[in-house]
Amino acid sequence: MNTVTVSPKFQVVIPKEIRLLAGIQPGQKLEVFRVGGVIELVPVDDIRSTRGSLPGLITEIARDEDERV
User: CA-CA distance, 12 to 37, in Å (whole number)?
Assistant: First the structure.
């Protein structure tokens, strides 16, 4: 089991094994969630990395003529 200690500045160090398994890199952003009594850290993906992740999604919208600018 991996344990961490909260510093006086409320900082924690993610253990190396966990960082490697999760692919966490220095400077990467993580979202923090509290679910019941559990704190979760979830890596935030760069929006550009999601490009093409929804194949077949129709992105064109039919518009009425009066809505065009």
Answer: 18
